[in-house]
Design brief:
Blueprint (H helix, E strand, L loop, with lengths): L11 E8 L3 H12 L4 E5 L5 H5 L15 E2 L2 E2 L11 H15 L3 E3 L3 E6 L5 E5 L2 E10 L6 E2 L13 E4 L13 E5 L3 H12 L4 E4 L9 E2 L2 E2 H7 L35 H6 L3 E3 L2 E5 L2 E4 L3 H26 L21 E3 L5 E6 L3 E2 L28 E3 L16 H21 L1
Parallel strand pairs: 1-2, 1-8, 2-5, 8-21, 10-19, 11-12, 11-19, 12-15
Antiparallel strand pairs: 3-4, 6-7, 7-8, 9-20, 13-14, 16-17, 17-18
Helix pairs in contact: 1-8
Length: 423
């Protein structure tokens, strides 16, 4: 803390302010602490609260525990090949904070960030103003739940909620459930409801899928060995457009397994194409179900192809495994569903989130409201982002690479501090 923060009425000044107290903000704090850089972490709720408040009861990670690595804090539990539950992840991240004691201020929300005329940044918070030489935005990329406009046309009496609000089947009213969207959350929530014996209707999207295991190992382990989590986004097909891609659906539940929507259909789940409207109490779907299922399977099989090539190239002794064969195909595309006639009592929207950086009043955004950066470094001196999906690699938005991304920013921040001191 600088001397002027102690003067009566003076604005508190810190070398670095980190905004966000999840795993990204804590990782940043670890590197700043290790470098002896003055900083504070501001968290509008409590540390790691997203793991406690925004996941359903039976949530598990979809990546194995051995891939969970924070700076100076690799997973050291008894089940490295398992998948931590929501509560276990929360406890793990909280224990990380307890390990090194970051300078966190909980229940402090940042209202605005603007550039100071003399350099650095001015922050307005619910606890008063702050001034910082450098700022790290570590609030993730999923801010506001997305719900389609036609949701307002749902018949009266049908409950609706976003996937971020879903907790368990028992919390929902009796009756059928329509889940809209098949990204990771939508597919897993549909499975959760299905396992609880609920009548599930699932409107599919264009999310790809991946097999949990192939040729004797978790597919994540193969991909890790093949370097897929280390390839910079600029070298990926489509380049920066990868940031808009939907993650592959799979689950870590029950020790890890595939999510096969076709198998769910053989067990009674009703599948549809993309939901596009509600007209007079009837849900309207595009005839895209066959295409969606085939495309998801094609991605899963292409990943297996790359694993086969890797095994053959290195001469790895791995068991041979038969390829997947579809267990169900739709006989026809159903494009309408009378919600009341189908006894639909709840609709769960699992169609993603949008960003909300209205409080960050600095010109670093593109026309779609996404921050412009390279490995988290923006063109505004001293402003950084951490914890975003595809910040640098596929691993950036998960535990796999957060430590590496934080270390890179730590070096840049330390260099910025040295430049300021020299000046």
């Amino acid at each position: 803390m600088s001397d002027d923060s102690n003067a009566a009425g003076a604005v508190e000044h810190r070398e670095v302010v980190v905004i966000g107290g999840g795993q990204a903000g804590l990782s940043m704090s670890w590197h700043l602490t290790a470098r002896g850089i003055d900083h504070v972490v501001l968290e509008r709720d409590t540390l790691a609260h997203e793991w406690r408040d925004s996941r359903w009861d039976n949530f598990t990670l979809v990546t194995p525990n051995w891939q969970c690595v924070l700076p100076g804090y690799p997973y050291s539990g008894t089940d490295p090949d398992g998948f931590m539950s929501r509560a276990e992840v929360y406890d793990w991240v909280r224990a990380y904070a307890d390990m090194f004691g970051p300078p966190v201020r909980e229940h402090v929300e940042v209202v605005s960030v603007t550039q100071s005329h003399g350099g650095g940044f001015d922050l307005e918070t619910t606890a008063g103003p702050l001034r910082a030489d450098q700022v790290v935005v570590a609030v993730g990329g999923y801010h506001v739940p997305t719900i389609p406009r036609f949701a307002e046309k749902l018949p009266h009496g049908i409950e609706q909620l976003h996937s971020a609000e879903y907790r368990n089947a028992d919390a929902l009213p009796d009756g059928g459930v329509l889940v809209v969207g098949t990204g990771q959350s939508g597919a897993q929530i549909a499975e959760d409801l299905h396992l609880e014996g609920r009548a599930v209707h699932l409107a599919t999207g264009d999310a790809p899928r991946v097999a949990r295991f192939y040729r004797g190992r978790d597919c994540v382990a193969w991909l890790q060995d093949m370097g897929h989590y280390d390839i910079p986004i600029q070298q990926q097909p489509g380049g920066l457009g990868k940031r808009e891609n939907t993650n592959h659906y799979v689950t870590g539940r029950g020790g890890g397994r595939d999510i096969d929507l076709r198998r769910f259909a053989t067990e009674g789940m009703s599948l549809y194409g993309r939901m596009v409207d509600i007209v007079d109490g009837t849900a309207v779907f595009e005839p895209t179900l066959t295409r969606s299922l085939d495309a998801a399977d094609a991605v899963a099989e292409s990943i297996k192809d790359s694993i086969d090539v890797h095994i053959a190239r290195l001469g790895i002794d791995a068991p041979v495994e038969a390829r997947y064969r579809p267990v169900w195909r739709p006989e026809r595309e159903i494009t309408e569903l009378d919600l009341r006639a189908a006894d639909i009592a709840t609709v769960i929207w699992s169609v993603g989130f949008r960003t909300d950086y209205r409080w960050l009043r600095v010109g670093v955004f593109d026309g779609a409201g996404h921050p412009c950066h390279h490995r988290g470094v923006t063109d505004i001196a001293g402003l950084y982002f951490l914890g975003l999906p595809w910040l640098h690699t596929w691993g950036s938005g998960r535990f796999a690479a957060i430590a590496r991304d934080a270390e890179h920013l730590g070096e840049r921040i330390a260099a910025g501090a040295r430049e300021k001191a020299a000046a």
